[in-house]
Design a protein that fits this description.
By secondary structure, the chain is mainly α. Helix content is 76%, strand content 0%. It has seven helices and no strands. The N terminus is likely disordered.
Amino acid sequence: MRLSIVFFAVFLMFASLPVSAQEADPDLSQPQAEGDKGYDERLALAQKLQELRPVRDQVNIAITQIAQSRPEEEREGFKSAMRNAFNVKAIEKISINAYAETFTAEELKVLIEYHSNPVAVSAAEKMEAYTGIVYPELVKMLDKAAMRARTGQ
């Protein structure tokens, strides 16, 4: 159960990426995977985005937030064990490839521009405080929901 919460927390970190409510432009259609002519450009842009917004930082934030649900005397050991068990290099590679396969070059450029903006960087830094407030409540609700699902109540 706790491992699924880690992945959910990491998902929430990625879900905080800026989105636009603009109508889809035909030129911004879903890119194809490896082998298309623009993949190498998107891969390079994805690498740059990874440098601006490292998955490692988001994993560490998620682990810190999850550790808050542990007794205080267990938190540091728990965080250390989680970091040692988590393959950050693998998730970085998965993240870069997913960016390149999912987003167009134009979308990646906009994300890079956004994450290069000092105000956006400041907002991103505040996400840890934000999740520190929301996450404990989320964990409580998920635990209650899981208990209800198991007991049929």
